[in-house]
Amino acid sequence: MSEAAPSGSGVPGTLADMNLEWFPDSYWAWRLPAGSIGPEDAFTIMRTPDETTVITQDPKPPAPSEVSGPWTMFRIAETLPHDAVGVLAALSQVLARVSIPILAFGSYDTDYVLIPAGRVAEAREALAKAGYVNT
C-alpha cells in the first residue's frame, strides 16, 4: 500500500509514486580517518569530525581502512524540496520489511540509497510492489 505524502511535505501524490533510478555499477564504502581527502573519482565524499566516508567504485582504499560492499545504488530521480517529510523513511520501511539493509546519503537535490549487491532483484520487486517505479 502506498504511503500518502504528508500534508505540506512538498511531495505531490504519494511517496511511492516516485521514480527510482538504478545505477548499473557496484560501489564500496570506505571509512577513512577524519580529515582524509579521498580520491578525485569518488562518487561522493562525506566528512564529519569523526571520519571521512567515501562511496566509490574502487574496492581498495589507498590505506588500510574499513570497507563495505559491494553495494548497488539507486536514487530518487527527481529533485526533492527541502521541506519534504518521510521520503527516505518510506523507502527504508519497504526494504526493512524484506530485511534489506541500506546505506543512504543525500545531496542538495535528492536522496541516494545503497543496498547489498546480491539483493537487487528482491529490492526492486519489493519497491515495485509498494508502487515505486524502477528505471
Describe the fold and architecture.
This protein has 135 residues and is an alpha+beta fold. The chain has one domain (16-134): VC0802-like, CATH 3.30.2130.10. The protein is 16% helix and 36% strand. It has helices at 87-97, 120-129, and strands at residues 19-33, 44-47, 51-56, 66-76, 103-106, 111-116, 133-134. Strands 1, 2, 3, 4, 5, 6 and 7 form a seven-stranded mixed β-sheet that branches. The two termini are 20 Å apart.
**Which whole number gives the mean pLDDT?**
87
CATH class: Alpha Beta
CATH-assigned fold name: VC0802-like
- Beta-strand residue fraction: 35-45%
Count of separate DSSP helical elements: 2
Structural class: alpha+beta
Task: Sum up the overall morphology in one term.
Answer: globular
Total strand count, please? 7
> N-to-C terminal Cα separation, in Å?
20 Å
Low-confidence stretches: 1-13
Over the alpha carbons, how many angstroms does the gyration radius reach?
16 Å
Domain count: 1
Main pleated sheet: 7 strands, mixed
CATH architecture label name: 2-Layer Sandwich
Helix content: 10-25%
CATH superfamily: VC0802-like
What order do the helices and strands follow? EEEEHEEHE
How do you describe this structure in short?
This protein is an alpha+beta fold and 135 residues long. It has helices spanning 87-97, 120-129; strands spanning 19-33, 44-47, 51-56, 66-76, 103-106, 111-116, 133-134.
Fill in the keyword field for this structure.
135 residues, VC0802-like, 7 strands, disordered N terminus
